[in-house]
Amino acid sequence: MQYKIYLSPPHMSGREMKYIQEAFDSNWIAPVGPNIEAFEEELCRYTGSEHALAVSSGTAALHLALLALGVGQGDIVLCQSLTFVATANPIMYVGATPVFIDSEPVTWNMCPDALEDAILHYISIGRKPKAVIVVHLYGMPAMLDEILYLCKKYEIPLIEDAAEALGSEYNGRKVGTFGDVGILSFNGNKIITTSGGGAMLSDNAAYLARARYLATQAREPTAHYAHREVGYNYRMSNVCAGIGRGQLEVVDERVQQRRANYLFYQTSLSKLPHASFQNGIPGLFSNRWLTALIVGDEDTLLIQNALFANRIESRPMWKPMHCQEIYKTLPRFGGSVSEGLFNRGICLPSGSNLHDDDRELIACIISDCFKT
Ligand SMILES: *Cc1c(COP(=O)(O)O)cnc(C)c1O
């Protein structure tokens, strides 16, 4: 199936080739080189993070984040249930157990009350959680004040999965910089891309140094390749970092373009029966990576089929982790907010290069589904 309109396609700025050319001219065709260092510095400048490590994917960044925090065999990690599976899988890589936390209905992210219930339960049985992973779903910042308060109160490190949220802000500060560690993704469908890549952010130099060491095969500082630990090959390529530099120059434009999509859909579709959107509250600035439309139970399939018939890509929302075949036997806390959203939500084409006419067409097709 070749779609005419994709959900979230790459959007090049035209500035990427200059940096790729530099990589070729200097022969840094490797997972080391000047584009990587520059991209990391530029990420720090843009997000306000003290340190950044560019890696091969957001998933690798999450794996390194857990390792840097010392999470390992038998540990409990409290993880937002409503997310892409890449948030949870790295918990399994390190031999820890994910425990899934339901969402609250305002931001659709981790519910602080359910989080505290889980923390208290595991403390009461003598297994204090080793980390919390919160997600900023579709770019919408989570309730960070409440979550940070709990993490501080119970002294549990926080990892922010900001894979979808580059450019989003909480009270004027970029998300990904609130937790002990934050991660970003530059996959092809994200707000900016390196074709595939990710980054780990932290103000803690020791975490960054540890992650850098593990990402480069845990090589000791000797000439003869000495190793005392098992490492990984997780660094970003200098060519990919060049793409990232050209993309990062226009990230604020991309945020504005995606926010305009959201505003358009909200304005044209909110009158439909049972329609609602991920509204947030003042102080939460979302990059609106994807716009998800919530409708009645019966209507989601109708809309998806109508869009599909016009070769327009749409997707259900992420299926919560506690409903997934691989994770459904694991413990969970909270109610059924995430399941409700999953059953009634559709992600609409949200690319920063989405044409105005295409947007109009999508709104017409959806509205027509409700004509009797
Ligand atoms: C995309 C994504 C990831 C993983 O990033 P990759 O670069 O694809 O490995 C992790 N978490 C969330 C919420 C994502 O959307």
The gross shape turns out to be globular
Helix amount: 25-40%
Integer average pLDDT: 97
Beta-strand residue fraction? 5-15%
User: What is Rg?
Assistant: 21 Å
- In CATH terms, what is the fold-level topology of the largest domain? Aspartate Aminotransferase, domain 2
The major β-sheet equals: 8 strands, mixed
Structural class: alpha/beta
Number of domains: 2
Report what the structure shows.
The chain is an alpha/beta fold and 372 residues long. The protein has 2 domains: 233 residues, 3-Layer(aba) Sandwich (Aspartate Aminotransferase, domain 2); 118 residues, Aspartate Aminotransferase, domain 1 (Alpha-Beta Complex). Helices cover 37% and strands 14% of the residues. Strand 6 and strand 7 form a beta hairpin. Helix 1 packs antiparallel against helix 8 and helix 2 packs parallel to helix 8. It is globular and about 75 Å long. The two termini are 30 Å apart. The relative contact order is 0.18. The model has no long low-confidence stretch (mean pLDDT 97). Bound molecules: pyridoxal-5'-phosphate.
